Structures are given as structure tokens and as C-alpha cells.
């Protein structure tokens, strides 16, 4: 995927940054001047989501929200989204609203 953070070293560096929390998820972000486009990853741990199908489902849902906001995302940002278990039960509209609010608070998305 074009906008994915894949290297463990980069992900760990971002996970060391100060987190921003909402009720159902957490975002950590970092400014990256080397890239010309934003990069992100979604960390759905096995500890929180026991079944692979649930992990994949939540990643697909969050990815679709990020793709829908891609024109508003700051191009120099790298970020990691860490959802909580309750996110599986949220309707898509609430998930999109909460994630977009969190991205605005993190200054990843401009309004």
C-alpha cells in the first residue's frame, strides 16, 4: 500500500510519541519531512481482538475512514491508530465522526 508504515523501526519511533486519546481509540503521530505523502498504520493487537477476522474487519473500517479523508490529511504526517475493542460495535458513522475528530485534534486533518 502506498501510504502504509511498514518498517517496525518507524512504527516503534512513532509509538514513543505522546498519544491522543478518544473514548474508543488512540492516535500517535509524528511529522516526517522526508516523505511527500502521509503514511499510517493501524495496530489491532491480538490481545484486544482475539480473532483474526475481527482484527481485519476493524482495520478495513478504519482504513476506509482514512481513505475518505485523504484529501484533507496533512501530507507530512506519519501516524499510528490503535483502536479499542468497543470499536467493533460502533456504527460506521460514529466511527468516522470519532476518528475524524481525533485526527483534527492531532492536527493530521485540516478542516
UniProtKB/TrEMBL annotation:
UniProt-listed InterPro entries: Ribosomal_Su5_D2-typ_SF, Ribsml_uS5_D2-typ_fold_subgr, RNase_P, RNase_P_CS
GO biological process, one term: tRNA 5'-leader removal
Molecular function terms, GO-annotated: 3'-tRNA processing endoribonuclease activity; ribonuclease P activity; tRNA binding
GO cellular component, one term: ribonuclease P complex
Alphabetically ordered keywords of this record: Endonuclease, Hydrolase, Nuclease, RNA-binding, tRNA processing
Listed EC numbers: 3.1.26.5
Keyword RNA-binding on entry: yes
Pfam families: Ribonuclease_P
Keyword DNA repair: no
Entries under SUPFAM superfamilies matching the protein: Ribosomal protein S5 domain 2-like (SSF54211)
Gene3D superfamilies: 3.30.230.10
The reaction(s) this protein catalyses: Endonucleolytic cleavage of RNA, removing 5'-extranucleotides from tRNA precursor
Function: RNaseP catalyzes the removal of the 5'-leader sequence from pre-tRNA to produce the mature 5'-terminus. It can also cleave other RNA substrates such as 4.5S RNA. The protein component plays an auxiliary but essential role in vivo by binding to the 5'-leader sequence and broadening the substrate specificity of the ribozyme.
Family note: Belongs to the RnpA family.
Cross-referenced NCBIfam families: rnpA
Subunit: Consists of a catalytic RNA component (M1 or rnpB) and a protein subunit.
Protein name: Ribonuclease P protein component
Taxonomic lineage of the native organism: Bacteria, Candidatus Komeiliibacteriota
